[in-house]
Structures are given as structure tokens and as C-alpha cells.
Amino acid sequence: EVYLWEANPQMVKFYLTALASTDPQVQVVPLAAWTENRKMKFFLTKGQENVTDIKQFKAHKCNPRSIHQPAGASSLFSGVGMGDDKKRKRVHQPGSEVEVDAVDFAAWFKDLALKSADEVILKIDIEGAEIPVLKKFITSATLPCLV
After folding, report:
1. Computed from CA positions of residues 78, 84, 86, 89, in that sequence, does the dihedral angle turn out positive or negative?
2. 24 vs 50, more confident
3. Burial of 111 (C-beta count, 10 Å sphere; 0-12/13-18/19+)
4. Is residue 75 a contact partner of residue 92, using CB atoms and an 8 Å limit?
5. Handedness of CA 50, 51, 56, 57 (dihedral sign)
6. Which H, E and C letters describe the chain, residue by residue?
7. Burial, 136: exposed, middle or buried (Cβ in 10 Å; 0-12, 13-18, 19+)?
8. CB 55 within 8 A of CB 122
9. Pairing mode, if any, of strands 26-29 and 2-5?
10. Cα 85 to the chain's mean position, in Å?
11. pTM, to two decimals
12. What is the Cα–Cα distance from 124 to 132, expressed in whole angstroms?
């Protein structure tokens, strides 16, 4: 099975839903991976605020230095040291804020009830939340041994 986690509602709508429909083993998880279950602020990348069609994403060339980058990365962190990211300073140009559901990733993973023979490949790119999520994930005594 493949689980595609994405908190950005636009990415789920424009890309992942169609991708998942091509393979029954692919499941979209339209949530933010976090260390607990709760609502969180999620900051769209500046330039994504008014995107209503996939063509608007595809019409922009990738320019990571642009402050208006619809193809850029959204984040749980605003980059201005406020809200959930008081200690964080990032080079990030936040756009509009939306509220998303966040889930305790370690608890979700545990609920998969994996067996020691199961193979797991975990690729994480969660725009700033990697450290807190991985800290909880690898220190959870209920998870299987990972190499």
C-alpha cells in the first residue's frame, strides 16, 4: 500500500486525487502529519491563495526566489516566529492561512499494525515539521524497529 500525505487542499484536489484513482493501492491522506491530533494553521505559499485550476500551477516556472511561487512549498510554519512556530525562523514567504486537520503521525503509523516482516519505505518532506514528527516517531516505544 502507498499513503500519500498532503495537508494542502489544493494539491489534493489538483494532483493527488487523480493520481490515487489510477491505482487501488494508493490512498490519499489529506491531513498534516504532526505530533498530536488537532487543528493547525497551514500557510499556503504566497501566490497559491487564488489558484482554482491546475493550469494556474502549471503556468508558473519554478523560481524558488520568487515571493509569488504557486509551485512552491506550503507549510505549517509561517516563517515569522508566530503561532505554532514561535522558535522557528525560515526563509519562507507565507501566503494565506487555512485551517487543516493534523494527526499524530506516530499513532497513525502504529495503527497500521505492521508486522516485523513488513517492509516500509518512509519518505518525508513536510516543510519544517520533519524534526518534531521524527523525534516523536523514533522515540515511540510502540513502533517497530526501523533501520
Report:
1. negative
2. 24
3. exposed
4. yes
5. positive
6. CEEEECCCHHHHHHHHHHHHCCCCCEEEECCEEECCCEEEEEEEECCCCCCCCHHHHHCCCCCCCCCCCCCCCCECCCCCCCHHHCCCCCCCCEEEEEEEEEEEHHHHHHCCCCCCCCCCCCCCCCCCCHHHHHHHHHHCCCCCCCC
7. middle
8. no
9. parallel
10. 15
11. 0.74
12. 12
Residues facing 129 on adjacent strands = none
Cα 84 → chain centroid: 15
Residue with cell 500519500: 4
Grid cell at residue 54: 491546475
Residue with cell 526563509: 91
- Yes or no: say if 120 and 114 are a contact pair by the CB < 8 Å rule: yes
Count of Cβ atoms closer than 10 Å to residue 9 Cβ:
14
pLDDT greater than 70 at residue 84: no
pLDDT band at 82 (very low <50, low <70, confident <90, very high): very low
